[in-house]
Specification:
alpha/beta; Rossmann fold; Dihydrodipicolinate Reductase, domain 2; 2 domains; 6-stranded parallel beta sheet; 4-stranded mixed beta sheet; 10 strands; globular; NAD(P)-bd_dom_sf; Myo-inos-1-P_Synthase_GAPDH; Myo-inos-1-P_Synthase; Inositol-3-phosphate synthase
Length: 449
C-alpha cells in the first residue's frame, strides 16, 4: 500500500464531524469564561487563536524535502470552531458575561463587544461539597439524597442540553477548583464498587468524580484540567474503555510547570547537574484563594513536584540529580488577580562541579495560557472518540503535552518532557490518518541512491 493509500485508509476510518459539538464545563470561572469568550472572538474575526496548537500549529508529513507541513486543523478532521456550543455548571450562578467580569481576565471593552453572546449562557446549578473545596461558599448548587442522585441529575442535565442545543456530540472538561488531596481507596478500584459507593454516599467520591462518571455513562469524553484524583482510578478507567469515551488528565500545564518541562530536558541532555530548584508563585484569583487551604494545596503540590523527578530520573542519574532539593510554594496575593507570577531559582553545576545559577521570573496570565489548552483538549478528545484506533483505549496518553501530571497506563511512567510529548502527539495524529511516523533519524538524506 502506498503512503497516499494508507493516508486515505486512515482518514476514512474516522467518523466525520457532522453537526454540532457541545463542550460542557463544570466550573465556569476564569478559565472557562476566557475559553468561551476567546472562541467567540475568533469566530467573529476579532482575534486569532494564539496558543492553540490545534488551530495554529503545523505538522510535517513525509520527508523534509517533501515540503508538506499543513496546519493541523487542515490535516485531521477536527470540529470547526463554528460548530461548538457551550454549556456548564457553576456554584455562583449568573450569566457568563457577569462571570467574566468577575474573573477580571479580559478587558471590559472586549467583553462588551460580545455581551450578547456571553449573556445568553447561564450555568446550571453545580454538584458541590464544601468538604472538598473549603474556601468557596456556594450560592447555586444541586440538592440530592445521595451522590448517586446528584450524579444522575448531571446526566439529566446532559440529556436536556443535547435536546435543546441540537448537538450531535459532546465533550466534558473539568475547569473547576482543585479538590482536597486524597489517595485511592477500595471504592475506586472497580466500577461495581464505585457505583455502590454512589448509592451509599461514600466519602471518598468527590464532586469531580460525579461529573466524570455522568459523562462517561453517557458516552462523553472527559478531560481533567485540575490536579484532582477524578479519573485516575481504575473504576472510571474501566468505564471509559467500556463506553468508548476517552479520558485525559490531569492539571493544565500553563505557567511555571510549562517552563520546567522546557528547561529540565535541556539540562538533562547536556548532562548538567541540578542541586536545587526553588519555585514560588503568587496569584490572586479564585484558584489562589482555594489553594490557600493546606489540604487543597497538597493536591497541587503533588502534581507540580512530580515533573522534575520524572524528567531527571535521579535513580538513573544519581551524580547529577540524586541530591536535588525541590521546593514548590504557592501564595495567595489578591492584588495580582489572574496575572500570576512564577519565580524560579535553579542551582545547577557543570564541568568539574562548578556551580551556576538560573533565575526565571514568569509574569504570566494563568487563564490566557489555560484557555487554548482546554480548547485543544476538547477538539482532540472528540477526534479520539471518532477514531477506532483511539476510542476504546481509555487514557489518551498522547495528550500528555497539555498536563502537569499526565495520566498513563498502570505500570507505565508518565512522559513529562515537553518535546517528547509533542512528538508523541503529532505521531499519533499521523498514525490515525495513515501517514508515516517521523523518527527524525534522517539517514536516508545522506545514503547512496
Amino acid at each position: 500500500m502506498s503512503t497516499s493509500d494508507a493516508a486515505q485508509t486512515g482518514a476514512a476510518s474516522i467518523t466525520p464531524h457532522k453537526g454540532k459539538l457541545g463542550i460542557m464545563i463544570p466550573g465556569m470561572g476564569a478559565v472557562a469564561t476566557t475559553l468561551i469568550a476567546g472562541v467567540e472572538a475568533v469566530r467573529r474575526g476579532f482575534a486569532k487563536p494564539f496558543g492553540s496548537m490545534s488551530q495554529m500549529g503545523t505538522i510535517r508529513l513525509g520527508k523534509r524535502t517533501d515540503d508538506r507541513s499543513p496546519l493541523i486543523k487542515d490535516f485531521v478532521p477536527l470540529a470547526p470552531l463554528e460548530d461548538i456550543v457551550f454549556t456548564g455548571w457553576d456554584i455562583f450562578g449568573g450569566n457568563l458575561y457577569d462571570a467574566a467580569k468577575t474573573a477580571g481576565v479580559l478587558d471590559r471593552d472586549q467583553l462588551d463587544s460580545m455581551k450578547d453572546f456571553l449573556s445568553s449562557i447561564e450555568p446550571m446549578p453545580a454538584a458541590f461539597d464544601q468538604r472538598w473545596v473549603k474556601r468557596l461558599d456556594p450560592k447555586f448548587q444541586k440538592v440530592g439524597k445521595n451522590k448517586c442522585d446528584l450524579a444522575n441529575q448531571i446526566r439529566n442535565d446532559i440529556a436536556e442540553f443535547r435536546a435543546k442545543s441540537g448537538t450531535d456530540r459532546q465533550v466534558m472538561i473539568w475547569c473547576g477548583s482543585t479538590e482536597i488531596y486524597i489517595e485511592q481507596s477500595e471504592v475506586h478500584q472497580t466500577l461495581e464498587a464505585f457505583e455502590k459507593g454512589l448509592v451509599e454516599d461514600h466519602p471518598d467520591i468527590s464532586p469531580s468524580m460525579l461529573y466524570a462518571w455522568a459523562a462517561l455513562k453517557e458516552g462523553i469524553p472527559f478531560a481533567n484540567g485540575a490536579p484532582n484524583l477524578t479519573v485516575d482510578i481504575p473504576a472510571l478507567q474501566e468505564l471509559s474503555k467500556k463506553m468508548g469515551a476517552p479520558i485525559a488528565g490531569k492539571d493544565f500545564k500553563t505557567g511555571q510547570t510549562f517552563i520546567k518541562t522546557v528547561l529540565a530536558p535541556g539540562f538533562k541532555v547536556r548532562q548538567l547537574g541540578v542541586s536545587g530548584w526553588y519555585s514560588t508563585n503568587i496569584l490572586g484569583n479564585r484558584d489562589g484563594e482555594v489553594l490557600d487551604d493546606p489540604d487543597n494545596f497538597k493536591t497541587k503540590e503533588v502534581s507540580k513536584l512530580g515533573v522534575l523527578e520524572h524528567i531527571f530520573e535521579p535513580e538513573k542519574n544519581p551524580d547529577l540529580y540524586g541530591d536535588m532539593y525541590h521546593k514548590v510554594r504557592i501564595n495567595y496575593y489578591p492584588p495580582r488577580g489572574d496575572n500570576k507570577e512564577g519565580w524560579d531559582n535553579i542551582d545547577i553545576f557543570g564541568w568539574l562541579g562548578y556551580p551556576m545559577q538560573i533565575k526565571v521570573d514568569f509574569l504570566c496570565r494563568d487563564s490566557i495560557l489555560a484557555a487554548p489548552l482546554a480548547l485543544d483538549l476538547c477538539l482532540y478528545l472528540d477526534l479520539a472518540q471518532r477514531s477506532p484506533a483511539l476510542k476504546h483505549l481509555g487514557i489518551q496518553e498522547w495528550l500528555s503535552f497539555y498536563f502537569k501530571d499526565p495520566d498513563s497506563a498502570p505500570g507505565v511512567y508518565p512522559e513529562h518532557d515537553l518535546f517528547i510529548q509533542n512528538m508523541k502527539l503529532k505521531n499519533t495524529l499521523r498514525h490515525v490518518m495513515g501517514e508515516d511516523l517521523i523518527t527524525h533519524l534522517g539517514l536516508d538524506y545522506y545514503g547512496n541512491d
